[in-house]
Amino acid sequence: MKIMIAQENRKEAKEVIDFVKTLEKHEMREFLAFLQGAQFMKKIEDEKTA
Known about the structure:
- This protein is mainly α.
- It has helices at residues 10-21, 25-49.
- The radius of gyration is 14 Å and the shape is flat.
């Protein structure tokens, strides 16, 4: 899968990818759950300010 990333975000994206590569399968599931929770909270905050 190819994803376009803005040049100014490449360093941060590489750090995240490198981190994810170090995770065991169960840790990846936990990290995904964390990201989904963060995404949910951002959506709620965005709706509050809209």
